[in-house]
Design goal:
single chain, alpha/beta, Rossmann fold, 3 domains, six-stranded parallel sheet, four-stranded parallel sheet, globular, binds nicotinamide-adenine-dinucleotide, binds L-histidinol, binds zinc ion, Histidinol_DH_monofunct
Length: 441
């Protein structure tokens, strides 16, 4: 008999409310401890460590040094292994994801005339090299391949490499290779987990190091990114999936339960809450769950029950829509779905959510795969300061300034005054008479 976690917010004290905000990433101490030696082994042993961990942790018995990088032949073969309908779906999704990210991409440069003859702006250039992490443990993720590859390609990053764990047969998921090639990425390493982050950071005989790594992963990956943050830019924090379904009285609770199960099925370390002020919706959802579980595969039933019957998921009944909004903002979910016939009435009250999906026709599934916005999103309350993965994650921004001769005297005078106040004589000299002497020559 499964007992879904059902919380009435008004009955909880401060500690009880705080406990609802916990995620599996909240305490990474065990992972941080175990990951350290893996990172050190990759740093000192290179490919040999990647092969050893691939065999031990991914059970890829046949993995060899020569086989760490996917070959052209493996790419070609992948297209024969994937159903044509799946290839078509990948093409469709990439089309939308590309359109969205092209729209998001900034102009290469903007300059504004701030004062007559004085110009300033921003210039965007691609980061030289990035690593894209595509998980493969509790599922295979061609979708993550698309979500990470497309913005990197749109940003014109010259060196892009995907890191993904090998399966026990030593292969990379075929649909991931199809998605990589269709998105425009040709380098794929059969390396996953913490060892992938280390390989991307330090490089090995086979792996060319990168400046930045993006992409979601298990707590092993999250812990490795945290430890190597001084060596490689770890990008936004994207760990185990999490969602809130915010439902009001205009929808049926059975629909809310259906959507609650979307992210709950990722793994036992995921988080998924239905938040509603309607007792009827909450009770309908509770009643509908067994029927929905009957339509799921056994492994996904196990994962989602672990989430919804554990401490990181379930149903939260609030006293009002306002209390629901406040809970959502406090929680700062990765995915938020507003399940209401009038979703825009709620949107204005939501400030902290990495993704907000509006209304009964926008379930998280559609955004996970093919709507267009990026589904690699910050987790573990990262949405309080981070947004979704975007083209900007692959671009470096530099300021550009240009002062013409007529504009110079006014700016030089102000700068000189401030330089003298701060006690910087060279700064002041560079905008004083000594400069004028050179400029007049
Ligand atoms: N935030 C997002 O945008 C987003 C998107 C998709 C998926 N996800 C999340 O990403 C996660 C993917 O996790 P996953 O497990 O499926 O794949 P993963 O590739 O992240 O993790 C599997 C790897 O973990 C390592 N590992 C496993 N057990 C280990 C051990 N005992 N010691 C050391 N290393 C070990 C192995 O190297 C293995 O290759 C899920 O939690 C999913 O919810 C998040
Ligand atoms: N929900 C994930 C992001 O948290 C994305 C995804 C891919 N496949 C299924 N789901
Ligand atoms: Zn998902």
């Amino acid at each position: 008999m499964v007992q879904v976690n059902f919380q009435v917010l008004a009955e909880l004290d401060a500690a009880g409310r705080a406990a609802l905000l916990r995620r599996s990433e909240t305490d990474l101490s065990m992972f941080l401890e175990k990951v350290g030696p893996i990172l050190e082994a990759v740093r000192t042993e290179g490919d040999a460590a990647l092969v050893r961990f691939g065999r031990e942790l991914d059970r890829a018995e046949g993995l060899t040094r020569e086989g760490l990088k996917v070959t052209e032949a493996e790419f070609d073969e992948a297209f024969g292994l994937v159903e044509p309908e799946i290839v078509e779906a990948i093409r469709f999704a990439i089309g939308n994801i590309r359109t969205f990210h092209e729209e998001q991409a900034p102009e290469p440069m903007w300059l504004k005339e701030l004062r007559p003859g004085a110009f300033a702006g921003d210039r965007f250039t691609p980061i030289r090299s990035v690593a894209l992490y595509v998980p493969r443990g509790k599922g295979s993720f061609p979708s993550v391949t698309m979500m990470t590859s497309v913005p990197a390609v749109v940003a014109k990053v010259p060196q892009i490499a995907i890191f993904t764990p090998p399966a026990p047969d030593g292969r990379v998921d075929a649909a991931t290779l199809v998605a990589a090639r269709l998105a425009g990425v040709e380098t794929v390493y059969k390396v996953g987990g913490a060892q992938a982050v280390a390989a991307a950071a330090y490089g090995t005989e086979t792996v060319v190091p990168a400046l930045k790594i993006v992409g979601p992963g298990s707590p092993w990956v999250v812990a490795a990114k945290r430890l190597l943050a001084g060596v490689i830019d770890p990008g936004l924090p994207a760990g185990p999936s999490e969602s809130i379904i915010l439902a009001d009285e205009t929808v049926h609770g059975g629909l809310a339960a259906l959507d609650l199960l979307i992210e709950a099925e990722h793994g036992p370390d995921s988080s998924a809450w239905l938040v509603t002020h309607s007792r009827q919706v909450a009770e309908e959802a509770l009643a509908a769950l067994p029927g929905h579980w009957a339509a799921m595969t056994p492994q996904r039933v196990e994962f989602s029950q672990a989430v919804l019957c554990g401490r990181a998921g379930g149903i939260v009944l609030t006293a009002s829509a306002e209390e629901s909004h406040a809970f959502v903002n406090d929680y700062a979910p990765e995915h938020l779905q507003i399940l209401s016939e009038k979703p825009f009435e709620h949107l204005g009250r939501i400030t902290e959510a990495a993704e907000v999906l509006m209304g009964p026709h926008t379930p998280i599934t559609i955004a996970n795969f093919c709507l267009g916005p990026n589904a690699v999103l910050p987790t573990s309350r990262g949405a309080r300061t981070w947004g979704p993965l975007s083209v900007h994650d692959f671009l470096r921004r530099s300021s550009v300034g240009y002062v013409t001769a007529p504009a110079y005297p006014e700016l030089a005078e102000v700068a000189k005054r401030l330089a003298e106040y701060e006690g910087f004589s060279s700064h002041a000299n560079a905008v004083g008479p000594m400069r004028d002497a050179y400029l007049k020559r």
